[in-house]
Amino acid sequence: MQGEDIQHATVIGTGSMGHGIAEVVAMAGYDVTMRDVDDETVEEGYRNVEWSLEKLEDGGALEEPVEDVMARIETAVDLEESVADADIVIEAVPEQMELKQDVFADVDRFAPEGAILASNTSSLSITEIASATERPSDVVGLHFFNPPVKMELVEVVYGSETADETAERAAEFMEAIGKEPIHVRKDVHRFVVNNVLGPFLDEPHWMVSNDEATVREVDAAMVHRRGYPMGPFELIDMTGIEVSYHVRQAGDVDVPPLMEQKVENEELGRKTGTGHYEYENGDGPDYEEGDGAEFDTLRVDAMIVNEAARLIGNDVATADAVDTGMRLGTGFPEGPCTYADETGIDVIVEKLESLHEEYGADRYEPAPYLRELVSDGRTGTDAGAGFYDY
C-alpha cells in the first residue's frame, strides 16, 4: 500500500486536535471516521467540525458546500468498527502514555495489515507507544499544530523501529491534505519545534531571574527589533506557564527560578488573570518599541541556534527541516539556521563561548556541530557555506 493509495482515515479522539484533524482530512476530499468513547463526546466533536466549516464558508475559505464536506465524515464509538477499513489511523487522545498504549494495542488488533498507525503526540516517545503493538514498523508520529485547520506544519516522527516506507507514506498523505511535513528522524523528547523553541523561552527567564533584563525589555526587543510575532513572556503567558514548567521537568531540563516562582504562586498567565503581565486588572502585554533598545538579542538567538545545531549534529533533522518547522510552527521571522548563516556562525560560537566562560552553565557549551562548521570554514553566507551552501 503506497501513500497515494490512502482513501480512508480514522481519527481516534474528537477533542480540539482530533476533530480539527478530521476536518482537515475531510476538506481534502478523503473519507474519515471520527471515533471516541461515547456518543455524546463524538457528537460534540462532529458539531465542532460543522461549526468550523461554517465559519470557513462565511469567510470564503471553503471550496465546496459544508454539507459536502460533512458527508465524508462518519462517527463511531466501537473501536473495531471504526478502524476496520482504515488505511491510516491517527490517534489524538490526551497526552498520557498508558492511555495511548492502550489505544494502540486495541488498534493493532483491529486495523488492516499495512495501515499506518500514527500518534498526534507533541512530546511522548513514539517508540514507547509503538511497543504496545505487534507492528512497530507501521507506527509513526504525526504531530499536528493547533489549530490543525490553520497550521500548515506537521512533524513526522520516527520511532526506533519505524520503517522508512511508513514515514514516507505518512508524509505523502500530509502533503495530500495540504500540510507541510518535516521529518524528525530520531525519537527525541519534544521533537524538533518545541526543542528549538525552548531557549526562546528559557534564556529570557534566566536573564530576568538574574536581574539582567526586565520582562518588557525582552519582549519589546524580540518583537520590534528581531521580528518575532510575540515576545517570550507574552507567548508563555498565552500557552500557560505551567505547561512549559512541566515539560522541562519531564525532560530533566533546569527550570529558571522565575518560571518556577510563577508556577508556585499559581500565576500561570492569561488563564489565571496574571502571569508575567496583568490580565484581570491590567492591559496584558504593555511593552513599547523603545523598551528593548539595549537588550542583547544575540544572546537569545545564539541559544536557539545552538539547540538547532544539536539536533542537526545528532541526525535528528536537517537544517531545512528545522528552519521550515520554526517558520511554520512558531512564526519565527526566519529559520535559526538561516539567521546563523547571515549573522556568522563564528559570531554565534564566540557569543556562546563568552557566555560559557562567564556563567559556566552547560547549556552555553557550543554544540559540536557548530564547532565543526567553523573549523571547516563554513561560517555562513559571507564564506559561501554554513548550514547551507551558497
Q: What low-confidence regions span 5 or more consecutive residues with pLDDT below 50?
A: none
Strand content: 5-15%
Written as H for each helix and E for each strand, in order along the chain, the element string is EHEHHEHEHEHEEHEHHHHHHHHHH
Shape call: globular
Q: Helix/strand-derived class?
A: alpha/beta
Radius of gyration: 22 Å
Read across the widest sheet, the strand sequence of neighbours is: 3-2-1-4-5-6-7-8
User: What's the story with the biggest beta sheet?
Assistant: 8 strands, mixed
Instruction: Compute the number of helices.
Output: 17
Mean pLDDT: 96
Question: Helicity range of the residues?
Answer: 40-55%
Tell me the total number of β-strands.
Answer: 8
Spatial separation of the terminal alpha carbons: 39 Å
Structure description:
This protein is an alpha/beta fold and about 400 residues long. Helix content is about 50%, strand content about 10%. It contains 17 helices and 8 strands. An 8-stranded mixed beta sheet has the order 3-2-1-4-5-6-7-8, sandwiched between helices. The longest helix is centred in the first third of the chain and has 20 residues, at about 40-60. The two termini are about 40 Å apart.
State the gist of this model.
The protein is built from 17 helices and 8 strands. It is of the alpha/beta class and 390 residues long. Strand 4, helix 5 (97-110) and strand 5 form a beta-alpha-beta unit.
Please specify the SSE layout and strand pairing.
Elements: E1 8-12, H1 16-27, E2 31-35, H2 39-58, H3 66-70, E3 73-76, H4 79-83, E4 88-91, H5 97-110, E5 116-119, H6 126-130, E6 139-144, E7 153-158, H7 164-176, E8 180-184, H8 193-209, H9 215-225, H10 232-239, H11 241-250, H12 257-264, H13 297-313, H14 319-330, H15 336-343, H16 345-359, H17 368-375
Parallel strand pairs: 1-2, 1-4, 2-3, 4-5, 5-6, 7-8
Antiparallel strand pairs: 6-7
